[in-house]
Amino acid sequence: MTPEAARKFTAIVSKERYLDRPEELACYAYDAFLVQALPEAVIFVKTTAEVSQVLSIAHANKIPVTARGTGTSVCGAPVPIQGGLVVCFSKMDQIIEVNTRDRYAVVQPGVINNDLQNALAPHGFFYPPDPGSMSIATMGGNIAQNAGGPRCLKYGVTMDYVLGLEVVIADGKITRFGSKNVKDVTGYKMASLFCGSEGTLGLVTQAIVKVVPKPETTRTLMVNFTDLDDTAKAVSDIIGSGILPAAMELMDQFTLNAIEESANLGLDREAQGSLLIEVDGIKEACEKEVALIVDHLKANHAAHIEEASTQEEQTKLWTARRSAYGVFAKLAPDILSEDVTVPVSQVPEMIRQIMAISKKYDLTAGVLAHAGDGNMHPLIPADRNNKAEWARVEKAFDEIFAAAAALGGTLSGEHGIGLAKAKYLDLVMDKDSMEIMAKVKSAIDPLSILNPGKFI
Ligand SMILES: Cc1cc2nc3c(=O)[nH]c(=O)nc-3n(C[C@H](O)[C@H](O)[C@H](O)COP(=O)(O)OP(=O)(O)OC[C@H]3O[C@@H](n4cnc5c(N)ncnc54)[C@H](O)[C@@H]3O)c2cc1C
Question: Across the chain, what does the average pLDDT equal?
């Protein structure tokens, strides 16, 4: 970046919103994945006009631009692999409007998901996408990653809730797609195109998202199994029977023990598999759903079924599940936690294959899964400094991705592609489809300045 370009950037934002000292830049070189790269500068934007001016200058000078929310991505998506400028949205954090009558909210990209939930709660409403990182991740990051979470089984992922977007494209033009209407089929669904685009097509500066009423009742079951295969089969039987719980989370023994070690919640360390199941809706409907679910659990030899009887107990069970990622960090110097999705009927087979592949490479794998929608997070703890071990980890994941593709699955259910999985894209996409993506990218960002070096 030339000194002249740097001067122009600092003229847009005040000096304290522009960082270029090495010790400052180091904080923006990484996310929760394993690859790091330093930017040349970081700029904190507060308005759409600032974003537009920043991009005009970057475009004119062909400076790579990588957007950043709070850097919780687990696939390297916000890592500025080609240097340049990181545009950080964490200070653009206003909830502009909450309108429960027309069922939408308007937010700036730096709003933390949980802050939106807190703003909606007094109205008896909520915003369904609930990534495990919801208390730290931004709405802009959620949109760019098309984030999901446990209750996306019933409610759908971020894209299903994005009604409209304001996006600044590479040359600085401010564009708006979609509207505040729940039904809007006017033209191409452009707002959806930006969901999951990982900051490669434009920078989101405002979003209109759909909000929904909180269900009357929520019931939460914790179920233990002595056999992991039974656990997975119970999931596919419940979903196959037509019941749609709000969430159905699977944890294997490895994961349960990791959580228990750290949080001491009284989880059954002997269970080979467990399910955390939540149903929500009208009281009588939940009653019936729970009864049907329990029938399927028993048919699949559930060893212990327990229902949370208070809100505190529900929170405790979810705390256990949501703390999983944090506790894995304690297991080994490095953890490669991945994200594959298979059709629900293939969940038992995918788990068998994950276990067999990790055994083949003399590794220990754990499985954490939003199993009701087939979205699984196989994770392998290891030490990257141990080159031989790490090579085995990489080979194991090569095979895990190939296995998911062979079962009709896909590379990511929610975490995205980023740097982590670009090399696997051709397992699930043909050449022509990839070419179409490349054409879309070059039509909107012809100089390829937006998050260059990523999956596109
Ligand atoms: C403990 C933990 C649990 C997690 N659980 C889940 C989960 O359950 N489900 C799930 O889906 N993910 C999960 N994640 C991954 C991560 O939190 C999500 O991908 C999240 O959406 C990233 O948001 P962020 O604000 O941190 O974005 P960042 O990590 O900063 O950026 C992510 C991507 O979004 C782009 N971006 C950011 N802001 C903008 C913008 N305004 N305009 C355009 N592009 C932008 C960046 O360039 C980058 O490509 C988890 C992560 C952690 C650490």
Answer: 95
